Amino acid sequence: MDPKIESPEYSIFFGVMGATSAMALCALGAAYGTAKSGVGISAMGVRKPEIIMKSIIPVVMAGIIGIYGLVVAVLIANSIDPVKRGYTLFKGFLHLGSGLSVGLSGLGAGFAIGIVGDAGVRGSAQQPKLYVGMILILIFAEVLGLYGLIVALILTTRQG
Q: What is the pTM of this model?
């Protein structure tokens, strides 16, 4: 089969868009989670400044979402080599799918972490027994991003 048909020049576009969507959407989710949780920490810190460091956990968990996108974006970017001309359209679509997988799940996880982090930090300042519940809910929200990362890694490493 003709290599130009298997590896058209525009196939690289889909891979680059996969890397872009992985990084951009995960960064948006991480930024929203950090900002929303930070607002809750600031509001809570006025009344109980002694538990500010204990309440940083939602911000850290939101930052991890950004790392998921970075990992997938780097994997995609490293597999794109326009000089070899072996980047097929199938590979481009796989990389687009993997970028969207981690990006959209990271966006959703970041939103969940932000909302739960804000309400959880404010609530645990008033009732300390809520802290463990907040942490559990944050873990379940973080796992949503991890699911997207796992699917993205499977798609990115698939040979095609």
A: 0.91
